[in-house]
Amino acid sequence: MKKFILGMATILVAIPIGESIADLLCTYIESLKMKPTKKIIEGNAELSAFQNEGVELSPCVSYCDISEPYEYYDDDEEDW
């Protein structure tokens, strides 16, 4: 009977407390990982500013103006 009561107390008390401690530890570890990330972001911003010095950037990301119409060429079908 003593072991049963000890087991129930462990389930009801010790496991939730252990989970809370583990969550706090994981949160602390995640906050430690943010510090180097901030330094990397600042370094990337400085590098981008240095590389783009005097260069005007277009607001378009992947637009290319083709002045000549595109001709479709299918290599699979050849005229015999």
Structure description:
The chain has 1 helix and no strands. It has one helix at 2-51. The longest helix has 50 residues, at 2-51. The mean pLDDT is 79.
The fraction of residues in strands falls at under 5%
Main beta-sheet annotation = none
DSSP helix count?
Answer: 1
Give the helix level as a range of percent. 55-70%
- Unreliable parts: none
Rounded mean pLDDT score = 79
Distance between the termini: 92 Å
Overall SS class: mainly alpha
Order of helices and strands: H
Gyration radius, rounded: 31 Å
Overall strand count: 0
Shape: elongated
List the helices and strands and how they pair.
Layout: H1 2-51
List keywords for this structure.
80 residues, mainly alpha, 1 helix, elongated
Short précis:
By secondary structure, the protein is mainly α.
